[in-house]
Design goal:
Layout lengths: L1 H13 L3 H6 E4 H10 L11 E5 L6 H10 L3 E3 L3 E7 L5 E2 L1 H4 L7 E10 L7 E2 L3 H4 L4 E6 L2 E6 L1 H11 L6 H16 L5 E4 L2 E5 L4 H16 L2 H9 L3 H8 L3
Parallel strand pairs: 2-6, 6-7
Antiparallel strand pairs: 1-2, 3-4, 4-5, 4-6, 8-9, 10-11
Helix pairs in contact: 3-7, 3-8, 7-8, 8-10, 10-11
């Protein structure tokens, strides 16, 4: 599903007009993946595809039409879904999928975010900063795609992790957070060649994350994240404690 998700991600941006690709961006796990890949750092991909746009410049209907054309269907408050048979990898329509047991189904979700709440989208106020120039661009094959700056991606992870009820997503978010911090020197205060603490991050988001960190060490989240990252648990914990 990660490979299929990557293919669908590329197909979405590949089919955007030049003006559209300047206004529609990528966030979430795939943004982290490509940000690091462009730095020759290997990092896990994602199953979910997360995009964002400014509804003042891009009509929501434009996004909906493109997703419908790609075979995605509306799902929950801000998600679109595509369903596959787990063994054959055949794409299934909504009605056809009901004929199969759940354990034979795999899903790819396409999530939509906007700076303010509109219709079928997730409001993410941090995106207001992105549209005020706190952004970067990554190369996805032959396409330049807008993503939030490294700092904003970190703040998004700090914000989402304490709110996660899904343990796998929380584990993945922590792995993404570690990778972002580990590979972005500009996010650190360095003394005598050693990283001492992060800098310029939203203090409220940092405080809330740090309040939950001990719980994540106890409930197995940190251990699971270290397995994904293929590093020792104390190395992961040591970096997170410096945030």
């Amino acid at each position: 599903m990660i490979e299929k998700s990557d293919e669908l991600l590329y197909a979405f941006f590949k089919n955007l007009a030049k003006k559209e690709i300047e206004e529609i961006g990528l966030m979430g796990g795939w943004a982290v993946h490509y940000l690091l890949k462009n730095k020759d750092v290997v990092h896990i991909g994602s199953r979910d595809i997360d995009i964002f746009f400014n509804p003042k410049k891009t009509k929501p209907k434009t996004i909906e039409e493109k997703l419908n054309k790609m075979g995605f269907n509306p799902h929950s408050t801000f998600r679109w879904i595509k369903i596959f048979h787990s063994e054959t990898e055949k794409e299934l329509g909504l009605e056809e999928s009901k004929k199969h047991p759940i354990y034979n189904l795999s899903y790819i979700y396409f999530d939509i975010a906007t700076p303010t709440k509109i219709g079928h989208s997730m409001p993410e106020p941090l995106l207001k900063k992105v549209f005020k120039k706190e952004k970067e661009h990554v190369k996805i094959k032959d396409i330049q795609v807008m993503i939030p700056s490294s700092k904003i991606l970190v703040e998004m992870k700090l914000k989402s992790i304490p709110e996660r009820t899904d343990s796998f997503k929380r584990t993945k978010d922590i792995a993404d957070l570690y990778a972002l911090l580990e590979n972005n020197p500009k996010l650190w205060v360095v003394k005598n060649g050693q990283r001492k603490k992060t800098k310029n991050l939203d203090k409220k988001l940092v405080k809330r994350f740090k309040e939950k960190l001990e719980r994540f060490e106890i409930d197995g989240t940190i251990a699971a994240s270290s397995i994904i990252l293929k590093i020792k648990q104390d190395k992961l914990t040591g970096l997170l404690e410096k945030i």
